[in-house]
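Comment on both lines for my students:
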Amino acid sequence: MLITYDLSDDTVYEGAVMGIVSVSLPDEYIQQLDLIENTYGLRNRSDAMRQAIRLAEAEMKDHLNMSGHVEGVLVIVHADHDDTWMSRIQHRYEDQIRMQLHTHLSSGRCLDVMFVSSESEDMREILKEIRSTGKADYLKLVIS
């Protein structure tokens, strides 16, 4: 089921007039939005959406501000073991992936943990390629 939710009704928030944005979200995302609202003690779903955007923006800035040689751990959760998209990415960037672990979770999804070492430009490309597939349920880079 798809529910359309109007995130704003041209209200004033922290002294600024908010524009109207309509977003169609599946039930699962609406539940997550409600969880964000309740976890952070926010007033409504609009505040929850703003918080989610701020968190995504902070992560994006971290990735854009990477420079030089980067080492860390890349954690990916994805749904379909039979889909070869992750293997193709791993092979394409095998020089940057020092070690990888793969396991099947009880939920039926897959967990990949990769120890990576590369120049920041290459790391951004790896992250961009994984995100662009739309197949990663979770993606996190922890830089050492």
